[in-house]
Amino acid sequence: QLQLVESGGGLVQPGGSLRLSCAASGFTLDRYVIGWFRQAPGKEREGVSCVSSRDGNTIYTPSVKGRFTISRDNAKNTVYLQMNSLKPEDTAVYYCAAVGGSQLFSLCVLTPREYDYWGQGTQVTVSS
Q1: Distances from the Cα of 42 to the Cα of 81, 92, 96, 126, angstroms
Q2: 79 vs 15, 127, 128, CA distance in Å?
């Protein structure tokens, strides 16, 4: 059974850092486009970052560019989201999601409806 499990969330002060992990089971992550999304209370789910399956190309939403870094460790079947210089507005539940498998993609998108598989989410709270 294909499963994604996020971890690494928590409470951090403004300016701090967290590293989120997205571990896959039941499939090989390197054949999938992986996206990180977040949803704050009362807001729609938004795309944060994604990495393609063919070339490892990445995309970031403008509000996190320069602060967040997405990476994948194929040996560990895990994708990471390193978050630095965190701000209170980064507070949300963070989800990883996957799409693909049969076809390798050179690009990725930050549209939630394009993704087929989702993790359960991990809470990130940025507050002093």
Answers
A1: 23, 10, 20, 17
A2: 23, 25, 28
HSE toward the beta carbon, residue 15, CA cutoff 13 A: 1
Q: Which tens digits make up the pLDDT trace of 70-99?
A: 999 999 999 999 999 999 999 999 999 999
Q: Specify whether the CB–CB gap between 72 and 30 falls below 8 A.
A: yes
The pLDDT mean for the chain works out to 95
Which positions ≥6 away from 31 have C-beta within 8 Å?
A: 53, 100, 101, 104
- CA distances, 84 to each of 9, 33, 56 (Å): 13, 23, 21
**Nearest partner of 46 among 93, 123, 112, judged by Cα:** 112
Give which of 75, 76, 121 is closest to 97, Cα–Cα: 121
